[in-house]
Amino acid sequence: MSNVTYSTSIEEIDKRRQHETLPDKNTEKEQSIMIMKHLDRLNTQLLKEYSEGIFFINCEGDIMFSNEAAFKLTGNKHKQKSQQLTALIHKSKQQQAQELFQRALKGEKVHFSTTINHKTKKELHLYITLIPIIVNEQVAGVYAICRDDSKEQERSNHISQLETHLKMEQKLANVGSWYYDVTEDKSYWSPQLYNIYGLNPGQLFTPSFKDVLQFIKECDQKRLKKAVTEALLTGESYKIEYALVRPNGEERTVFEQADAVADEQGNVIQLIGVVHDITESKVITNELKQKEQQFQTIYNNLDAGIWSVDVQRNKMIVCSNGVSSIYGEDAIKFLEDRDLWESFVHPDDKPAVEKAQHQLQKGKTIRQQYRIYTKTGEMKWVKDRCIPTLDENGKLVRIDGIIEDITAEKKYVDQVEYLATHDHVTNLPNRRKFERELKNFIRQMKKEKDSLAVFYLGLNRFKHINNTLGHDVGDRLLQRIANRLKKFVTPDVMLARVGEDELAICFLSLAHINECQKLAAALFQEIEKEITIDDFSLYVTASIGISIYPHDGEDVKTLLTNANLAMRRAKEIGRSDWQLYSPLMDSETYKSYHLEKGLRNALLQDEFFIEYQPKVHTNSREIDSIEALIRWNHPEWGRVSPEDFIPLAEETHLIIELGDWVIENVCKQLQQWGNQGLQTVPVSINVSSKHLLKRGFVEHVQQTLARYNIDPSFIEFEVTESSIIQYEEHVKKVMDELKKIGVTFALDDFGTGFSSLSHLKDFEFNTLKIDKTFIQHATDKGKQQAITKSILYLAHALNMKVIAEGVETKEQLAFLQKHECSFIQGYIVSQPAAPQKIAKYLKKRFL
User: Fold this and answer.
1) pLDDT digit string (tens) for 675-720?
2) Domain EAL, which positions (predicted)?
3) What predicted TM-score, i.e. pTM, was given to this entire model?
4) What SS3 state is found at 138?
């Protein structure tokens, strides 16, 4: 045995192991000793020169010896007794190693890969061969020959990863690969190619070219067959798109590309190709083509024009048909001359357009509207949007734009703006427009340190014209007045309708009172001229209030409010009057506001009371009847004039409650006078149209009379002509019902409204009262005296009782006596008095 030599190969060791036998000994102990000696000899001669790690392991699995290479692999000398080889192996692999070791002990040569724990605590991949040691035909131990398999394992893992990545990439890209070996007539398909064809990648065969053709749509089979045949014959590559039909009937579109591989003689020996499923991309491509076609259609048929300019080349590179349509010039002309469009811009708009162009250099998109003159000379409004593109250095390199013809839109907007800012009846600016322009005027006057005046015109009794003659006549009347006043309009004067019967005029550079007076007089002169509409001759008066900037206000709201206050004061004073605003008017407005607020509580707080004024025979001065006059004793303002609170009551509808209260208290007073044994006379009560229209008014009067046991003939209702005009039929019905029970009616303030003989005839008033305005001028020779005489004559002719109101002087009394006015009322006889004083008058009977 000492002359035996060993090679370094595992195979040689294995062969020698099979032929060697050890001396036959009688005991296992002696046998083990001989094995150890044998192993020592092997260790000396073989282990030192062998490059792979070798372990000698006994049947119990203990490592008996290991060479230097084994130490390098494991980092252990393995001199410890009873050290197991399996202890070096990773826990997860120990069970497998133990099972394989048992197979080696049974005489089987075993190969396996495993992982061991290196002394440095790193995992090491080993390839181990277990070779049984046969002694006397029995396994006495095992050689464990180990090789570092880490690099091989890394290469294997790398190849596996590459294969996995390739499969994933093919799957994600929906690309399958194949090759065809011509010499062996064999094909290979990647898994993704199976998927593309709708086949199972796990099937046991690779489809042949003949198999493939059956999946190809019939119309494409010849083309594919021709391409493959030519590639095999000529060695040329090919590219082809075709449709295939999967086994489930689904149709897919693919793109195939293949290259030929030839041998040294130029014979094709292989075809290598890829198949790309382009179904979805084909759909997208088709959609893009359709959209491109749609875009081209829209691009060429848009009303808007699309253009683009290459700034660096100073050339227009895009110009759609829309540009040509807007300008009336061929698109080719714009492509030839980039600046041609500027010649079409309206001269007045050129500065603004050119100024806006500078913003493009800063990269700012500009939007502008301006006018152009087309090639035919037609003026148009256009809306232009310019979008700049800058390079990386911030330099303008391109401008893209869209231009639209907005002429029709502009006209519509202007029309809407006109309708929104002008009165549809007079075509004058409305309040909104007036306030906006007044704001601009104020800004201008402030800058120029100048003044302006606001004239607020209120047309008197315009509502009565609407109510009596109809709104059509009222509208035409307004139009006539507006046309007359337009003669005052200049660039420095603005006229507007700011209310139903209100106009406003703004005069720039006007502040002197004399100028205001002259203008007011001129306005009155125009307004008060006779206006004939249809068969009606109309005379209109106005009241004017004036406020001046900056003295009476420095903003629109204040100036208009103050001018309106002044106009209302002018109305209170009389017709055809004008008033400059005064701060005192604010206090009166404040009072009016609080009166209206307090009016609601006045009835509850017993702040109202009644005074009575006698009406007597003109000659004898015997009391004929008395008039009930409501009074208000305000806790803060004292006695409030009926002229102040009656209009407020009319506006707030409290007039009905006040009327009921007066009727109730008059009946109560008549009862008290009767209970005192006084000879009572009829009492007249002023009643409004709203009260007459109240549902159940007749029943309420009857119930009140009955409650106080008052004869209806002792009640007379005074109504004004203006209160019955709008609801003539209903008012007449109420009057007739009350007349039937004995109540009488008087027509109050005759001659001040729209006096009509038909009203005297149709309503059959018992009494006619001549307004005090006629009585005040009755002694003046002129129209007023003539009218008064005519009214007296008319009343006598109609056999009506006539009463003259407001008689204050002996001259007025003498005039009335001369013209046989039967009854008078006024301060010449008695002022309104309390019930106690009237009781004394009733005892006397004569005043």
Assistant:
1) 999 999 999 999 988 888 888 999 999 999 999 999 999 999 999 8
2) 592-846
3) 0.43
4) strand
Structure confidence at residue 470 (pLDDT):
86
Encode pLDDT of 554-599 as tens digits.
999 999 999 998 998 888 776 678 888 877 655 555 556 667 777 8
363 SS3 class: coil
CA distance 478 to 538: 12
- Residue 275 has φ and ψ, to the nearest 5°, of -125, 125
* Cα 431 from Cα 421, distance rounded (Å): 8
Q: Is the dihedral of CA 792, 797, 798, 802 positive or negative?
A: positive
Token pair recorded at residue 91: 């826990």
Which residue type occupies 465? Answer: I
User: Residue 10 pLDDT more than 50?
Assistant: no
Q: Are 115 and 97 in contact (CB under 8 A)?
A: no
Burial pattern 119-140, b for ≥16 Cβ within 10 A else e, equals eeeeebbbbbbbbbbbbeeeeb
pLDDT of residue 79: 52
Instruction: Return the structure tokens found at 187.
Output: 């094909």
Question: How many Cβ atoms are within 10 Å of 735's Cβ, its own excluded?
Answer: 21
Which domains, ranges and CATH numbers included, belong to the chain? 10-148 (3.30.450.20), 168-283 (3.30.450.20), 303-411 (3.30.450.20), 423-582 (3.30.70.270), 594-844 (3.20.20.450)
Q: What is the 3-state secondary structure (H, E, C) of 202-263?
A: CCCCCCCHHHHHCCECHHHHHHHHHHHHHHHHHCCCEEEEEEEECCCCCEEEEEEEEEEEEC
Which tens digit of pLDDT belongs to each residue from 134-190? Answer: 877 788 888 888 888 776 666 665 555 555 555 554 455 568 888 888 888 888 888
In whole angstroms, what is the distance from residue 595 CA to residue 180 CA?
111
Percent of the chain residues topping a pLDDT of 70: 86
pLDDT tens by residue, 236-248: 999 999 999 999 9
CA nearest 100: which of 131, 78, 137? 131
Residue 57, both tokens: 């392991």
pLDDT at 513: 82
Please give the helix or strand (H or E) that residue 749 lies within, else none.
strand 744-750
- For 297-311, write each residue's pLDDT tens digit: 777 777 788 899 999
Question: Poorest-confidence range of 623-637, 670-684, 784-798?
Answer: 784-798
Q: Judge contact between 640 and 599, C-beta under 8 A.
A: no
In angstroms, the CA 344 to CA 333 distance is: 13
Measured CA to CA, the distance from residue 587 to residue 573 in angstroms comes to 17
Give the pLDDT mean for 508-530: 88
3-class state of residue 335 by DSSP: helix
Cis upstream peptide for 23 (omega within 30°):
no
44-82 burial, b at 16+ Cβ within 10 Å, e below that, comes to: eebbeebebbbbbbbeebbbbbbbebbeebbbbebeeee
- The span from the CA of 35 to the CA of 14, in Å, is 17
Token pair in block for residue 487: 């003669």
Which residues on neighbouring strands pair with residue 622, listed in sequence order? 846
Tokens of 32: 């083990």
Q: What is the 3-state secondary structure (H, E, C) of 44-59?
A: HHCHHHCCCEEEEEEC
Smallest CA-to-CA distance from 7 within 52, 46, 53 is with 46
Residue 41 near residue 2, CB atoms below 8 Å: yes
